[in-house]
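hiii, so i know i said id send this last week but things got crazy w the move. better late than never?? heres the sequnce for the chain we talked about at the cafe, plus the structure i predicted for it. fair warning i was half asleep when i ran it
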Amino acid sequence: MNLFGWFKSRGSERNGALGQWRVEWAAAIEGTGSGDERLRTRLAELAAIEPDVELEQEMLDALDQLRSVQADAATGGLPTVETHHRVIGADTCHFSAPASLASDQSQASGRVLLTGSRAVFVGAGRTSATAWHMVREVGRAERDVYFVRADGAPAAHFRFNTFGDAVVCAFLAQQLKSERTPPSIIAG
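okay and structure toks below
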């Protein structure tokens, strides 16, 4: 088997049982947590027959991180991150993680910070901010989180180093956006 044959066969394995597990994981991320234990059990079963489930284990860890943040949010509190970054000023920071600008050709690396009023990227000699009232949609795909403006134009696209950072960022961004978006934009 040549090198490309190995890649193809490896991909087909991931599209089987592990692919189905990923579909169920994505549904759990969007849900309430009723199937979390089943995901954990199923991954343990798959680990016995699959040669590599490291990525799926990271995804399971991300689910645990999300559930912790969701529990805090359900009781009325978003996490507070201690930061003295001057770009935040007097704002309370709710999230901070390393990321890159996926939409930038150079994929500049830096840090994403979320406050009650905006999402900020700082790094590679640049700073960009997106106010929550300008964001119509927050989306996540794998380790990427993106924001879409009210007019449908892209506002930001971040690529995180871990699934945990991406999942938590998307959840918190949605919470913060909902608090700041005017009702006329939500309805439209």
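btw The CA atoms of residues 18 and 46 lie 7 Å apart. thought thatd interest u
miss u guys!!
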